[in-house]
Amino acid sequence: MLALCLMHRAGATELSYPEILLDDVKHVATSPARWEETEWHTAGWASLAVVGTALVVDRPLRDEMRRHSGNNSFITQVERFGSQYAAGVVGGFYVVGAFTGNNTAVQVAQDGIAASLIASGIVTPTIKLLAGRSRPRADEDIYNFKPFSDANSSFPSGHTTEAFALASVIANHYDETWVTCASYSIAGLVGLARTYHQAHFASDVVAGAMIGTLVGKSVVSYNASLRNGKLALLPDFSRGLIGVRIAGRF
């Protein structure tokens, strides 16, 4: 059965946050179905960049990091922006926004949670499982892939995905050069830290950075269109129903 569903979003309070999260997940998951030639070309070049990094950079960077690895407190602290510190950053934006009435800060927190959930909670773990790449510290071949192996989960980097997802959300909400530079610089250092600790190859980091950035930008753009009252068309699937859902605010 084909149907056309109209979802009315008159205000942010009409949908619970779990519903907003589900909406974002559906939007990102179905994005390839809406890609045009430009987006497919971009995806192709991104894939080539990851493969090129794997062929040219992975081995020499791994060997270099092995020669210099050790206990570096700065790198260890920066690395946590791809895990527990990321949650603190999101929470900080929400608290500041809620107490000061700053809608942008609240939106950063909301979009940051959605982007993190999708990028580092769904997309990256799925690819990790399918790829099954061994980590640099495993002393195995750099191209050792064992799909559906719980022990092998190097590709892509989850910490880097998380860091870049949050960085892209922040950078796309604040039109300030220093904010963009600071956000992506910290995210880049997270990726560097993962190679320093021999947890990931360079191509793992590049792939994670691309996933996090693309998902973060997509979530911010989609939610901004809803907040501004624009319409968005989404495929809608349910039992016995295949249709198109129009999401917007009226």
From TrEMBL:
Pfam family, one: PAP2
Keywords of this entry: Cell membrane, Hydrolase, Membrane, Transmembrane, Transmembrane helix
Residue ranges annotated for the Phosphatidic acid phosphatase type 2/haloperoxidase domain, each copy included: 111-220
SMART domains referenced in this protein's UniProt entry, alphabetically: acidPPc (SM00014)
GO molecular function, one term: hydrolase activity
GO cellular component: plasma membrane
InterPro entries according to UniProt: PAP2/HPO, PAP2/HPO_sf
Keyword Membrane: yes
Cellular localisation: Cell membrane
Membrane topology field: Multi-pass membrane protein
Main location: membrane
Full protein name: Phosphoesterase PA-phosphatase related protein
Naturally occurring in which organism (per UniProt): Sideroxydans lithotrophicus (strain ES-1)
